Amino acid sequence: MNRFCVFLLLCLLTVSETVLGSVLAIDYGVDWIKASLMKPGVPFDVLLNKDSKRKIQSSVGWKQSDRLFGSDAFNIAGRFPLDSFSSLKYLLAAPHDSEAVSFYTSISSADVVETSRGTVALRRSDGTEWSVEELVAMQFAYVRELAESLAGERVHDVIVTVPPYYTQFERDAVVDAVEIAGMRTLALVHDGTAVAVNYAMTRTFPDPEYHVIYDAGASAIRATVVNFASVASDPKAKSLTKDSTQISVAGVGFDRMMGGTELDRRLRNIMLDDFRRKHKKDLLGDKRAMAKLWKEAGRVKTILSANADATATIESLTDDIDYRAKLTRAEFEEACQDLKGRYAQPIFEALENAGLTLDNVTSVILTGGASRTPMIQSAVKAAVGDSKIALNVNADEAAVLGAALHGASLSRQFKTKDIKVSDIGVYDIQVSYLSEPKSPSAKQRTLSTLVYPTGSKTGSKKTLTFRRKEDFTVNLSYQKPPPGGFPTELLAVDIIGVSDAIRNLTELGAIEPVVKATVTLSDSGFVSIKDAVAVGEYKAESIADKLKGLFGAGSSSETETEAETETAARDEGSSSSSSTAEASSTADKKASVKDEPISLELQINFPSLAPMTVAEKRQARERLIAVDNEEAAKRRKEEARNTLEGYMYRVRDLLDDDSDTPFLKCSQDEERKAIREKLQETFAWLSEHGDDADTAQYLDKRASLEVLERPIIYRYEEIQEFPHALNNSQMWNWHTRLFLTDAKTNLTTELETGAPSKYTKEELDALEKTLIEHEKWLNEWVEKQKAVKMNEDPVLLTSELKARAKVLENQLQKLVRKKAPRSTTKKASTASSTGASETSTSTEPSSTTSAVPPTDESERSHDEL
Ligand SMILES: *[C@@H]1O[C@H](CO)[C@@H](O)[C@H](O)[C@H]1NC(C)=O
Ligand SMILES: *[C@@H]1O[C@H](CO)[C@@H](O)[C@H](O)[C@H]1NC(C)=O
Ligand SMILES: *[C@@H]1O[C@H](CO)[C@@H](O)[C@H](O)[C@H]1NC(C)=O
Ligand SMILES: *[C@@H]1O[C@H](CO)[C@@H](O)[C@H](O)[C@H]1NC(C)=O
Ligand SMILES: *[C@@H]1O[C@H](CO)[C@@H](O)[C@H](O)[C@H]1NC(C)=O
């Protein structure tokens, strides 16, 4: 019973253990990827790459057929400008003719082409095209592998940071890339919000505080106004329960086209102009030169962040012209003069959206790589005042660490500080639909309602009520075009089966049946219509109510709630009631007179940019897996070739060494000759076919050499092993002899005294016979073996020595283990039985009792070889 419980408990533990997966957080930036893994038992930190760096350059590329990641991929841009892909974040879901794409082509030498979906792909020098989602997925998969080698298990769940201004199209692209990389998106979290989570982790807020998270990244500057408040989770038991922290995003401001990359671009243009002046040559069309300039611009910008001037140096920038120029910070800042007013602007936009002023804010927390650029930092200081500036979070890592903590709390598998997050959307989202025609010929009006205005909480639902009798379409769209050149139209949702449902409800006696559709803005910022129903209300006299009355339901709570129908009536039969999930559910409860709602079918269409279809994603996933498999096969082949080559050089060294090596001593002339010939043949094969051979051929070649070396190795091993094996045989001879002498003496005594004897004479004679035969065999064959030369095969094998010694040993042990006979007198019994057990329990002869004389052979140790 007890054991069963323990067993059950263990099972439960194992089950929950396997359910406990790790959570990977990825902060995917234009320049850098940062990642962090949350796994029980693994210290919480950012993930290190293969060079133990804390961030990975956001690049993927190919050097001929070798795929590269991180700085390896970034650094080849000067040589392979068409095969090195960086700053891909600009291109996620970007329409081919968008501002985002034209900006990208001004900073990158990569070849941008249009996909069938209207988004972009990049074309490699070999002509293959890779969608942005596929390229980003490769980077996600690379991070996944790093995480898996740390976790020691498969990593499935990932939380990815996205900028708050990301459109639904871009969010879809991130989720698709995660799926193509073989993972699941646990959530998307806004980067500013992730920093706030990280900030709250180690702090408490006895009085609510507002802070601005100012994030100057490579692609954009954004500011997030966050309210932090500590709340006792259970006011009644304040001292016992742990406090939780509520983080509420109150406002967001951003400048999508202003970030570190724009500064790099300005610096690159300074060099471009300078080169044009000095060398009377335009580099714009020279992809290699442009890629080299781009890399140098990034390097020089970093130097200018800490120094007043820097020297740009690019060897053979073009046509063997080396470029060298002194650049000053003043010159750089002059070139960025027009941007100055934009650096701090997002802070004021965020405050305005939050309905606050700087006075309400405790601090402005600076994060993001570009926040270190002096002109940006000083602009922000000038705008908000030095005293408000806080540099108390890690500008690079706060977002990814916060995202990991948030992911961990979402997955509910980890004990983390209880932090509740409430975030907002940053765009006005509206629904539009056509009014119901008054008459078949009347023109329909387009009606629009702002369903989620800027600042609406994410993770909320709203119920829209429509008075319709036919199928209709509800469009969801951004009210204004989002910056970057993304479309406004999000979804067109057909609501199907309306006329049938309404007719049925009417036949049942419903008055003014309506269609209700639930619109959601998810925690990850996706807007959608999740379900739609037709519902009606019934007069007391209706058939349905009579039926209800019969079954004793409903009649008591017939007090009508007109809230919903009133709103519905407001706008000639079609309007929306914007209420939160809670509000609508209470309304439903009160309106218990309503009959069961009839579910309607939804058909979701993508009027502008569609996310990838299931088939497209599967195809992309298979494509990536094929690349992985190809690379694995290539690695195996390289390994086989390297092993073969290593082996060949080793054998050649053995052959060439004419000192007294074991190899020389244990081999015969003809054997060495055969090996030498085979080796020469293999070297010739390698130089001729080595580059186009396959894995199996490398393995074969090695095997055919090994087969020649094996007899030599075998001899050598036998020589090494022989003294030990011989020692063992002699030792058992010696033990048996001792035992026999002792036992025979005892037997004689026992016979004389008439005491019961432990062994019979026959048993002892049989053992002695085996012993003598073994001794005789051993002497004879050891003599024969002595005559064998080292480079000849042995006549006496160590395996046979061991086997024969074992036979003797077994026979001896059998007697030793024999139970002492029952004696008639107590004394005799104790004496003999204790004695027996003393000599014999150990099967391993102990060194204290045995001192086997060393033999001639035992001196022939391997040192000689
Ligand atoms: C913001 O500051 C103003 C002026 O100091 C004050 O009146 C207002 O109540 C503050 N608002 C909040 C939400 O704290
Ligand atoms: C809804 O979107 C579709 C597809 O873009 C469009 O044809 C239709 O006119 C839109 N309807 C309304 C009412 O906006
Ligand atoms: C309407 O009623 C008919 C007859 O009872 C039934 O077959 C049909 O499925 C109903 N339609 C809906 C949408 O409920
Ligand atoms: C043989 O065995 C004895 C006793 O165990 C040991 O001292 C000696 O080193 C052994 N010799 C070899 C060659 O193993
Ligand atoms: C012989 O007898 C002595 C004394 O009783 C005992 O200790 C010893 O184990 C016996 N030897 C054998 C081989 O049985």
TrEMBL record:
<dbReference type="GO" id="GO:0034663">
    <property type="term" value="C:endoplasmic reticulum chaperone complex"/>
</dbReference>
<dbReference type="GO" id="GO:0030968">
    <property type="term" value="P:endoplasmic reticulum unfolded protein response"/>
</dbReference>
<feature type="compositionally biased region" description="Low complexity">
    <location>
        <begin position="826"/>
        <end position="855"/>
    </location>
</feature>
<comment type="similarity">
    <text>Belongs to the heat shock protein 70 family.</text>
</comment>
<keyword id="KW-0547">Nucleotide-binding</keyword>
<dbReference type="GO" id="GO:0140662">
    <property type="term" value="F:ATP-dependent protein folding chaperone"/>
</dbReference>
<dbReference type="InterPro" id="IPR029047">
    <property type="entry name" value="HSP70_peptide-bd_sf"/>
</dbReference>
<feature type="compositionally biased region" description="Basic residues">
    <location>
        <begin position="815"/>
        <end position="825"/>
    </location>
</feature>
<feature type="compositionally biased region" description="Low complexity">
    <location>
        <begin position="574"/>
        <end position="586"/>
    </location>
</feature>
<dbReference type="InterPro" id="IPR029048">
    <property type="entry name" value="HSP70_C_sf"/>
</dbReference>
<feature type="signal peptide">
    <location>
        <begin position="1"/>
        <end position="21"/>
    </location>
</feature>
<feature type="region of interest" description="Disordered">
    <location>
        <begin position="814"/>
        <end position="865"/>
    </location>
</feature>
<dbReference type="InterPro" id="IPR013126">
    <property type="entry name" value="Hsp_70_fam"/>
</dbReference>
<dbReference type="Pfam" id="PF00012">
    <property type="entry name" value="HSP70"/>
</dbReference>
<dbReference type="InterPro" id="IPR043129">
    <property type="entry name" value="ATPase_NBD"/>
</dbReference>
<keyword id="KW-0143">Chaperone</keyword>
<dbReference type="GO" id="GO:0005524">
    <property type="term" value="F:ATP binding"/>
</dbReference>
<keyword id="KW-0732">Signal</keyword>
<keyword id="KW-0067">ATP-binding</keyword>
<protein>
    <submittedName>
        <fullName>Actin-like ATPase domain-containing protein</fullName>
    </submittedName>
</protein>
<feature type="region of interest" description="Disordered">
    <location>
        <begin position="553"/>
        <end position="594"/>
    </location>
</feature>
<keyword id="KW-0256">Endoplasmic reticulum</keyword>
